[in-house]
Amino acid sequence: VIKFLLKSCHDGHVSKFNHNYTSIRFEDLEPGKSYSFQVQAGNVMGVSEWSKKSTAVKTLTSISERPGRPRIFSSGITWIILHVDRPFDNGARITGFRVQRREISMYHKASWGHEVLVEVPPMRRISSAEDLMLEPPFELMLDHLLAQTTYDFRVAAVNTHGASEWSIASMRGRTEEPLVPSQPPCPSIDEVFPTNVVLNWTEPESHGAKISGYIVEQERVSGGNMHLANSPDRGGGSNVFTFDKPPTSPGGRSDMSDHSSPMHSPLHRHQMVPASPGSVGDPGSPMSVASAAESTASLASDLDMHVHIECNHFPSKRIDNLTSGYSYRFRLCAKNGVGESDYSPWTPEVVLDAGAAGEKGPSWDNDGSLVAQVTIEKKGSLPGPGAKKR
Predict the structure, then answer these.
(1) Model confidence over 272-295: pLDDT tens digits?
(2) How far is CA 48 from CA 8, 24, 139, 199, 384, in A?
(3) How many domains are contained in the chain?
(4) Residue 306 lies in domain
(5) Cβ(99)–Cβ(82) under 8 Å?
(6) CATH number at residue 306
(7) Distance CA 216, CA 117 (A)
(8) Exposure string (b/e) for 349-366, b if CB count within 10 Å is 16 or more?
């Protein structure tokens, strides 16, 4: 025997080696793949038949190769997207990447931390370095970052054997400036009582600056003898109160107009007219005291016509000191360090009935249609002024 021929059954490659050796070491095989072989012996007369195939042997797998340097592809207010070239997985599919970041600041020393695992979708097996070069990079989305902050990143590939070595740090990238919060959704009226309601809402997107609070706008939409003309601007401006005009006589003249009789001569400005004892104009008369108390109560009830209420960052608020028997609606805006958001849509009008005991108020459905308020009145009680059954 002067030679041996060894054939790899998976690709038909034949290797020739000296007759002095009866073993050979194969290099550059793919990890995690099964191989079998056949052998021939040769002398001066020729070569033998191929032997039977050897038992298939599977090569081992291991942790992935070290990834290359990650690249910052794009950024937003609270997120950055990294691109990472696919490293050789050594036979075990890469399932994700461990990512660490450093916050670069002049106020503290940068250190690696805030590790997250970013999963990646399955990709086809790679059998050569040339094929690996043609593969698209992995795209890693990193969110929950601080706005207007500089970061760098390093990554390690993860497969069934664990994590690879850390890559070198990426170039530095910076997130964008924060914005005002998004417009909040319409609040829900979850509980209705005779003089208060409970509002709840979903926290809107903060856009990089933590929400510090909310402003709830309350408007009474029916009842009362004082009407509020508010500025159409968001937030209000100055509030203007207008009173009903005095009634007019059938002839079209005001009942408070001057008459030609001396008994009804017009008063000059600042002129004082003494009130007779016991009359309404007498401050000490019972009628004047009752009238003053009634006017005070009426004025107090009209103070809730249009109100802005400052709230903390918790997305819920109990609105108190409302007037039973009237209808109200509400909307809100969110605040952060940049400013205030747009106001949410108005809630439907909710009726504060004297018999209300925590029922859910009206709401809008997904199609914008009204879902009626359920009002439970106490037996024998009468609805308040302006109350409606829904």
Answers:
(1) 444 445 444 555 555 555 565 555
(2) 17, 19, 54, 91, 110
(3) 3
(4) 178-242+301-390
(5) yes
(6) 2.60.40.10
(7) 40
(8) bbbbbbbbeebebbbeee
